[in-house]
Amino acid sequence: MRHFLRATTIALITLLSGSGIDYLIDLETALGLDSLFRIRGQRTPPDEVVVVAMDETSETVLGVGQDLTRWRGFHARLIRELQRQGAALIVFDLQFIVPHPDHDPDFAAAMQAAGNVLVTECVQELRRGDEDFYGREECSESNKKPFVQKDGARQPLSEQLITMRIIGSSPLLAKSALDHAPFYLANDAEEPVIREGWTFLDALAETPTLPVLTWMYYLQRTGALQDMIHPEPLFSVWLTERRRQCLSAADESPIKLPEKSALTHRIDELICLEDRRYLDFYGPAQTLRMESYSDVYEGKVTDLSGKVVFVGKANRKFSPGHIDYFQTPFSDTQSGKVAGVEVMATQFANLLEGRSIASPMPPGLMLLTFGLVVGLLLTRFAGLSGIAASLLASGAYVGLAVWCFSRNGMWLPVAVPLLIQLPLAWFISSLWARWDLLNERKRILAFVSRVFPKWMPFVAESPGQWRPEQGAAESTSQRDVGGVCLATDIEGYTTVAANHTAHEMWELLNTYYQVLGRTVSSHDGIIQDVAGDSMIAVWIDLPAANLRLAACLAALEMKLAVEQFNAASSTCQLPTRIGLHEGEMTLGRLDAGEGSHFRAIGDTVNTASRIQGVNKFLGTHILASAASVAGLGNVIYRPVGGFCLVGRHEPIELVEIVGKATETNVADYAKYEQFASGLSAFRQGLWENAVVSFQSLLDSHGQDGPTNFYLNLALIYREDPPQQWDGFITLKTK
After folding, report:
1. Alpha helix ranges (H) inside 301-382
2. CA spacing 20 to 30 A to 203: which of 298, 343, 573, 704?
3. Smallest Cα–Cα separation from 276: which of 365, 347, 193?
4. Residue 13: which of 365, 362, 366, 371 has the closest Cα?
5. How far apart are alpha carbons 301 and 140 in whole angstroms?
């Protein structure tokens, strides 16, 4: 339950943060969606879609240059050629606003004879009354006037507003075409990338756009509608009426067509739901099949039967022009922009496939689910394990998102989860781990004050938060002593603590420190401090030989007691390293605010802690400075070399305490003597002799931590001897 509550909190915080950032900068669309397109790459467009490009080659062949009005005289023959080949529909992405008496009659006759020509209408957008016109096309110079001036008003509008209007084709051409509709693409300097296409322009009297109109006529001509729709008089009028019915009955069920089929359902959704959809682009410019206008005009292209042909301006060899070219998620310095006619053909192709970019569920729900999964992993697996698990889960999620996007256009958010939620979840998890460790330390300190009363002659309260006893003499607040310091540390404690609740760690360490405390107390030692996974004990006020013997025996019994504790524990293992050092210390009270802390202070304490850390290099359990075992005859130890410890200038000789004299057999003595021989050769710089000695020891007696350590080092030094060798090993880390 604790893990789930924390995971839920992480999920909610990351959801709110990610959604807020995405709302402000549109991160998911601008980065996430575009990245999915680039990762997916190109996909094959439908064969039915062909773009006839009014390109540079055609300009030269036909001699029209870049003046679009000069193409009017060639459209009639183009239509007849496409009609001869049996094209299903011909869609002009061109403006025919201004009449051309020399060419329009022939053009209109060709359209009327073909009976399958659709033309686009110009959409103009006006802002600030007398300036800033926006639109895909120029819509001819005669119509680029403020709306109020066009309508005969004396003064232009001065207030800010946005107005849209449709400018249709000349009456003769509009009457001759099968149908007509606008195709609008916003030209926004702040967001130049085209990602969505309009299906209906509700601001223009619920008018359907040309790709939608083309799709409906294509369904009718291929027989897919099966007479279930009878538009009267035109599909453009029929679609507008159905759209208005849906909008006026927003609280009721959508309008249903007579036959309930998959196609009927798609038409219902197109008419009654959103007025725009994300486009599923097939790739960069010219991914759709594109033929040169002049080649089709001259009959050089012969496989256009049953195709939907989109005619429009599109450069194919040189850079795109400034008008009617747009950036898409695939646009870069190499691929360039996409012509407006390609965008129109892409939207029609999406409708033909029944495919568009859409999320399978509300994005907020996806973000919440992602945050919950990551939160559960981070709370269940602590530290680096949790981070690694969350990274693996995130990688799997991204793989799923790419697969869904490539397969059917399903859009799962990726930018917000990876860039916002995941790092934020790591940060929150680390704060919680720190909080747990601080609370655990407080509990441990309270526990020590109750379990280790041997410290009471000096203090009245608890380790880490002592206060002097009432009436105690001022001289007892500090004291210089000589003695032996013992330091312990639990190997891998951070991982253990992160995988358990604070209360579970309190119960575990409660038993663990009782084990350590009994061995210290039974040999007249004093628990000086406990901090998380480490304990400091001191032996004072006894003859030097007694202090050393008591500390060494306590260390040996502590090792045995911890092994028994680990064997009996069903929760986890707490392997313990021990270090011993003899020297001068000051026992004193440190005042901090209103409380006081009683500590053993001095280099002896720090050195004992450093010696304890050397165990992890040598693979040992108990290490001591040579001075700590001087004169002891009933404790067996072996020298393990001289070391320069971190933070100390003077090297120190270390020994491994291995057992009591009464418990050590003859074979062990032989092993220790052979190790001493190899160590002597090593310290003299006789690397080959040292390698032979240590390898022989491993072969005859099996694995041994110090022997492995020195063998590996001797092998390195044999190949690359140190420049200055004094027989001491310098440790760079604790």
Report:
1. 340-353, 363-380
2. 343
3. 347
4. 371
5. 32
SS3 state at 534: strand
Q: What is the pLDDT of residue 503?
A: 85
Rounded Cα distance, 707 and 713, in Å: 10
The helix/strand/coil state of 84 is helix
Q: What is the DSSP string of 565-633?
A: HHHH-SS----EEEEEEEEEEEEEEEEETTEEEEEEESHHHHHHHHHHHHHHHHT-SEEEEGGGGTT-S
pLDDT, tens digit, for every residue of 66-103? 777 889 999 999 999 999 999 999 999 988 888 899 99
- Could you tell me which of 486, 451, 475, 484 has the C-alpha nearest to residue 588? 475
Instruction: Determine how many CB atoms are found less than 10 A away from the CB of residue 729.
Output: 21
Residues 6+ apart with CB under 8 A from 41: 283
Which of 623, 601, 599, 611 has its CA nearest to residue 648?
Answer: 611
Measured CA to CA, the distance from residue 482 to residue 425 in angstroms comes to 50
Maximum C-alpha span of the chain: 124
Long-range contacts of 661-669 (CB under 8 A, 24+ apart): 661/633, 661/634, 661/635, 661/636, 662/634, 664/636, 667/701, 668/636
CA distance readout (Å), 45 to 49, 280, 351, 413, 730: 8, 10, 12, 25, 68
Q: How far apart are CA 41 and CA 165, in angstroms?
A: 37
Please state, in angstroms and rounded to a whole number, the distance separating the CA atoms of residues 260 and 248.
22
Distance CA 555, CA 179 (A): 96
- Determine how many CB atoms are found less than 10 A away from the CB of residue 699: 8
Give the Cα separation of 354 and 64 in Å (integer).
Answer: 38
**Residue 532 Cα distances to 56, 561, 688, angstroms:** 77, 19, 44
d(Cα 244, Cα 38) in Å, to the nearest integer?
38
Residue 218 clears pLDDT 70, i.e. is over it:
yes
| Strand, coil or helix: 366 | helix
Separation between Cα atoms, residue 421 and residue 370, nearest integer Å: 8
Q: Which residues contact 556 (CB under 8 A, 6 or more apart)?
A: 622, 635, 657, 659, 660
DSSP 316: S
DSSP 68: G
Which SS3 state, helix, strand or coil, does residue 282 take?
A: coil
Answer for the pair 643, 731: CB distance below 8 angstroms, yes or no: yes
Cβ–Cβ under 8 Å, residues 486 and 538: yes
pLDDT of amino acid 545: 87
Residues 253-309: pLDDT tens digits? 444 444 557 888 889 889 998 899 999 999 999 999 999 999 999 999 989 999 999
With beta carbons less than 8 A apart as the criterion, state whether 596 and 520 touch.
Answer: no
End-to-end CA, the chain: 38
- Count Cα atoms within 13 angstroms, Cβ side, for 342: 31
3 state SS for 264-275: HHHHHHHHHCCC
Question: Given a cut of 50, is residue 160 above it in pLDDT?
Answer: no
Q: How far is CA 467 from CA 329, 332, 460, 525, 526, in A?
A: 69, 71, 6, 21, 17
Backbone angles phi, psi at 452, to 5 degrees: -115, 80
Helix (H, G, I), strand (E, B) or coil at 679: helix
